[in-house]
Design a protein that fits this description.
3 domains; flat; mainly beta; five-stranded antiparallel β-sheet; OB fold (Dihydrolipoamide Acetyltransferase, E2P)
C-alpha cells in the first residue's frame, strides 16, 4: 500500500474496482484546511478519464508493473499490434489503451506497462517526441507573420498538427506526443 505522497505521473492504481493510470496530479496545500492531491485518472480498461481528489495521507492501492520495449507493427481498425524487441512475442492492444495512437508510425518503439500479477498489458507510453513527415499543408501567405501565425498540417500518420507558416510539404517535424503540438523542424 502506498499513500498520496507516492503519487506520480504514470503510476497505476486500483480504484473503484478498476485499474487507473495517473495522467496528471497536483498537490494542493490550501491556507485553511488539510492538504489534498487533485488527480486525473485514465482507466486502462475503458480509456475513460476521471477527476478525483485524494486527501493527504490517503492510502492508495498501487499496482506493480513491469516495463518492456515493444515495436509498433500495424493496426487493424481499433486493434494495434506490437512486437516485443527482446523475445519477438507479439501482442494486440485496443486503441483506448494508447496515449497518442494518431502520432504512432510503423516501427516506432514504445514502452508497454505490464501488470506483474496477471501479465496483462495495461497501457502504452509513447516517447517524449516523434519525428513525422508533413504530407499535406497549404502554402504560407507571405506577409501574414504579425503574430505567431500557424496553419494546419497533416503528417504521415494522418494526425493534424498546427505548424508555423514556413513549414512545407515534405518537411520533417518534431511533435510533442503528450500535447500533440509542433516543437521544431528537423533537418536531415
Amino acid at each position: 500500500m502506498a499513500n498520496t505522497s507516492d503519487i506520480r505521473k504514470g503510476l497505476c492504481i486500483r480504484y473503484n474496482h478498476d485499474i487507473y493510470k495517473i495522467v496528471e496530479f497536483l498537490h494542493v496545500k490550501p491556507g485553511k484546511g488539510p492538504a489534498f492531491v487533485r488527480t486525473k485518472l485514465k482507466s486502462v480498461t475503458t480509456g475513460k478519464v476521471i477527476d478525483n481528489t485524494f486527501s493527504a495521507g490517503h492510502k492508495i492501492d498501487d499496482v506493480r508493473v513491469e516495463t518492456h520495449k515493444f515495436q509498433y507493427l500495424y493496426n487493424e481498425g481499433d486493434t494495434y499490434h506490437f512486437m516485443n524487441t527482446d523475445d519477438y512475442d507479439q501482442i494486440s492492444l485496443q486503441k483506448s489503451t494508447l496515449d497518442a495512437p494518431d502520432l504512432m508510425k510503423e516501427g516506432e518503439v514504445v514502452t508497454v506497462l505490464i501488470n506483474t500479477e496477471d501479465s496483462l498489458p495495461l497501457s502504452v507510453e509513447m516517447p517524449q517526441s516523434v519525428v513525422l513527415e508533413v504530407t499535406h499543408t497549404e502554402p504560407g501567405v507571405k506577409g501574414n507573420t504579425a503574430t505567431n501565425a500557424t496553419k494546419p498540417a497533416t503528417v504521415e500518420t494522418g494526425a493534424r498538427v498546427n505548424v508555423p507558416l514556413f513549414i512545407n510539404e515534405g518537411d520533417k517535424i518534431k511533435v510533442d506526443t503528450e500535447k500533440g503540438t509542433y516543437q521544431e523542424r528537423v533537418k536531415e
